[in-house]
Amino acid sequence: MYTEVMTTQIAVRLDEQELAALDTEVIEGRAVSRSEAVRHGIAHLQRDQRYRGEDATLIELARRGELVYPELGGVLDLPHPTLD
Fold first, then answer.
1. 72: in domain
2. Which of 43, 47, 62, 71 is the most exposed place for a label (fewest CB within 10 A)?
3. pTM higher than 0.85, yes or no?
4. In terms of residue numbers, what domain contains 43?
């Protein structure tokens, strides 16, 4: 799965358990190769990093008392049926 972006090859030393984890991803069909399994792992890291950044932004907004979604500020004030 090569895209038309610049790539860099790196060497990584893995212990037996780490290598077995990569092989399991391939054997169980979640990746077509060890390289793809590594890229999937990196994609998870990138998502986690993005979420941490978003979390920090939300925490800062809450600390300042600002609405996260100002356009939804009055949603809870809309008329709604009573629940029995």
1. no
2. 71
3. no
4. 16-64
